[in-house]
Amino acid sequence: MKQKIAVYPGSFDPITFGHLDILMRGLELFDKIIIAVASNIEKNALFSVGERMELIGLAIDHDERVIIDTFGGLLVDYVKKVDARCVLRGLRAMSDFEYEFQMASMNRNLNKEMDTIFMMTSKDYFFLSSRTIKEVASFGGCVRDLVPPAVEKRLKEKFPLK
Ligand code: ADP
What we know:
Blueprint: E1 5-10, H1 17-26, E2 32-38, H2 49-60, E3 66-71, H3 75-81, E4 86-91, H4 94-110, E5 115-120, H5 130-138, H6 149-158
Parallel strand pairs: 1-2, 1-4, 2-3, 4-5
The structure holds adenosine-5'-diphosphate (ADP).
């Protein structure tokens, strides 16, 4: 039987427990998930693509059902290249919906065979985004309950307290 593969694309700058929650729940539905780190935000990112991939790897700790990769350009092209049909995305709030709805519709327009599967955020993480994590960490706030230990450590190195 053909394996059910999903592509989980995003910036992951850096990975948080919100991302990991969607990944773990996604693994209940798919045989394999390819985490695809977007390289086209490199200029505005805090972490390089290499660092983001490394931090994801440390958070997952060798699960052969998970592949960590990077992609640039159109997501539909990448999905086709890895022979997948589904894209996995998380939804936090109404504000996510508008953008996600547009992206999923556009992608489906570009490739009729591709579908986007949305999972609702867990109640513990609905307020959590990489952007807020970076903001809190930059002011020396504690993010221990929200990101894996390696991410917390790396954030402290990026934002040393003066
Ligand atoms: P992007 O920069 O493309 O929005 P992100 O790295 O922010 O990508 O997120 C990748 C995916 O993970 C998105 O679908 C996003 O909605 C989801 N996600 C991020 N944080 C959470 C969270 N706290 N709960 C659920 N889904 C989340």
